[in-house]
Write a structure and sequence with these properties.
The protein is an alpha/beta fold. The chain folds into three domains: 75-235, Substrate Binding Domain Of Dnak, Chain:A, Domain 2, CATH 1.20.1270.30; 241-396, Rossmann fold; 406-620, Rossmann fold (3-Layer(aba) Sandwich), CATH 3.40.50.2030.
Length: 625
């Protein structure tokens, strides 16, 4: 029996979403919430992770009547195999993003493109020195060539550790060595996971999951971290700036072009093209007042962090942005892009453009971006958007009002600058109990939840408890729309956090970027641990992904736990069919890596769970409340 149909108000906490959901109903447009109703009830075997399709002796599903698959694998082995491959998908996604960034950086270093340049030379030289690349007396591009090589080596098989392992506190590294989970190379660990989970290989659930931790650490401390650092080098390291968020950022009298996906290599060129005088002149020739560029999801986060480009919405707002009837074109790269955007666009005049060969969509037009044609292709895409403006039906346009102001751009460099150039003031505030701890709230939206209810309420509850909140990805839009990403939000914080953030002039919830930029949070945790002289697992830190849905989110959660950060999830992965895997995730990992997962759908109860963990860690460090 299907679940009971939700009212519009039950689907989302936002008025701009309510307005567009009503319009979608009037216009006969199907959304993710409609399709969720069609897909329920979900398969209980799939939810528990106890169905196996790895070989054609099956598919097999485990039950009391049939406790073993055809090969003899039990529920524990099958769940571990499935979860290992689920994590591999997430690690591959974020790390392949990193590979694309390396290819762009390599092209710049070798003079193969004029469309991309090194914008933060100081950061590039700093990282080169960190990784042992000689910088003194050398030309910038010669250094860049060697640095690109070092980054490439983190994906291979010839070294025993990935490039940024030196950032990990020594105590943590020793723990990883003892457990055999020191990441050696991004591709090596992902490939080994696929091999281990082939029939007839690793049939010990705990062993499989330990390799899963190793693989995810490779993503967090290499694949994602490299993507973040190269993006800063090529496009500029973010610093605090103002922006706006929600569907109200769309303009009724302008060509509206949305960028969606994860890779700034495409979106940065689109931003340059929309600001060219000839493009603006063409838009005016077609009857528009100008060109309005806005972001969705993580590509939107990237542009907002560096350029102040407004954010139209997060994952569950992507269809609703098109429902406004005011979007001429949506250009995508990869990840978290619903195939339904093509169908929703066909209900209006909105065209969808794909740019990556690894992410084509049936019904969309493909305009391939490469290192040597980025600007040319960007101009082509912007012209396509302008040409569609006269096709817009004004009678079908409805744009919600009142975009919300936010402050964005808190890279670690910007945060350290706000602290006076050193992490010490933050450490002192933690020791004094004015900032009792910090929590990274990251991840996605999931239509199984009331949209952004958990994300927003968890952030609000934590700052009341004097816990600093750091957000990335889709949670950014939620926190921004809730008014939490402005300095004035300190009025909602506890007295200690209010004092510290007020003195620094920063919000109690700070935005650190897209989902790959969770690597910034890892680096910040390492800076704190190294300053105090402890492991990350000793710190009063936690992470959370209340409304997650994707493989990448599970991978992020796993590398957070393996790095020593207690991680809350709103619902479990598909592992509950195995007592061994479930118990290891919810407690057993604590004994191994100093952290584990906690599951709680209620954001208020989750805040209390996290608070108890913060208290425990403070007590362990001898810090008072």
């Amino acid at each position: 029996m299907a679940i009971q149909k939700k009212s519009i108000e039950e689907k989302s906490i936002w008025e701009d979403a309510h307005q567009m959901l009503r319009k979608a109903e009037r216009d006969g447009v199907e959304t993710a919430w409609d399709r969720l109703e069609q897909q329920t009830p979900h398969c209980s075997f799939g939810e528990g992770g106890i169905c196996c399709r790895i070989c054609t002796m099956g598919p097999c599903r485990i039950s009391k009547k049939a406790p073993l698959g055809v090969c003899g694998a039990d529920a524990d082995v099958i769940v571990a195999r499935n979860f290992g491959r689920f994590l591999a998908g997430g690690a591959a996604g974020h790390s392949d993003h990193g590979r694309d960034c390396i290819e762009a950086f390599y092209a710049v270093a070798h003079g193969e493109t004029e469309d991309y340049q090194i914008k933060d030379k100081e950061k590039m030289l700093r990282i080169a020195a960190e990784l042992g690349v000689e910088t003194a007396g050398r030309e910038l591009l010669e250094v860049a060539k060697d640095l690109a090589y070092e980054f490439q080596e983190s994906f291979g098989t010839r070294r025993e550790t990935v490039a940024f392992i030196g950032r990990v506190p020594e105590k943590q590294r020793e723990s990883w060595k003892k457990l055999g989970i020191m990441p050696r190379g991004v591709d090596r660990e992902i490939t080994e996971m696929m091999h281990r989970t082939h029939m007839g290989c690793d049939n010990d659930a705990a062993n499989t999951l330990l390799h899963g931790a190793r693989m995810c650490l490779g993503d967090g401390w290499a694949g994602s971290m490299i993507a973040t650092e190269i993006s800063d080098i090529l496009f500029g390291t973010p610093s605090p700036r103002k922006a706006q968020v929600n569907l109200g950022v769309l303009k009724a009298d302008q060509v509206n072009l949305l960028v969606h996906g994860h890779n700034p290599i495409v979106s940065e060129k689109i931003m340059e093209a929309v600001n060219e005088p000839e493009m603006i002149a063409l838009a005016k020739e077609k009857g528009a007042a100008g060109i309005n560029l806005a972001g969705l999801c993580c590509t939107g986060n990237e542009l907002m962090m560096r350029q102040g480009i407004p954010m139209a919405g997060n994952h569950l707002m992507t269809e609703l942005a098109i429902v406004t009837g005011a979007v001429e074109l949506i250009v995508v790269d990869y990840q978290c892009i619903m195939p339904s955007l093509v169908q929703v666009g066909n209900c209006y005049h909105t065209k969808m453009i794909t740019t990556a060969d690894k992410a084509r969509f049936t019904g969309a037009e493909h305009v391939k971006f490469a290192m040597d044609n980025g600007m040319e292709q960007a101009r082509k895409v912007v012209r396509m958007a302008i040409e569609r403006y006269p096709m817009r039906n004004p009678d079908r346009v409805e744009i919600p009002e009142n975009p919300v102001d936010i402050v964005t751009g808190f890279s670690n460099e910007a945060l350290l600058e706000a602290l006076g150039g050193t992490i010490t003031p933050l450490v002192d505030a933690i020791k004094a109990g004015k900032v009792r701890g910090a929590v990274g709230i990251v991840g996605c939206n999931n239509p199984k939840y009331q949209h952004d209810y958990c994300n927003v309420n968890l952030a609000r509850e934590l700052i009341k408890k004097d816990i600093l909140v750091i957000v990335t990805g889709c949670v950014t839009t939620a926190a921004g729309k809730a008014g939490l990403l402005v300095p004035e939000a300190i009025e909602q914080a506890g007295p200690g956090l209010k004092e510290i953030c007020g003195a620094l002039g920063i919000p109690p919830v700070i935005h650190m970027g897209s989902c790959v930029d969770n690597a910034r949070i890892l680096q910040l945790a390492a800076l704190l641990a190294n300053e105090i002289g402890v492991a990350i697992s000793d710190l009063p830190l936690a992470a959370s992904s209340p409304e997650w849905y994707s493989e990448k989110a599970a991978t992020i959660g796993t590398y957070a736990v393996a790095s020593g950060i207690y991680t809350h999830l709103g619902h479990p992965p598909n592992i509950t069919g195995s007592p061994i895997v479930t118990n290891l995730a919810l407690g057993g990992l604590d004994d191994l890596v100093g952290a584990c997962f906690g599951i709680e759908p209620d954001p208020f109860k989750a805040a209390d769970m996290i608070d108890e963990r913060i208290k425990l860690k403070r007590k362990g460090l001898g810090l008072s409340e």
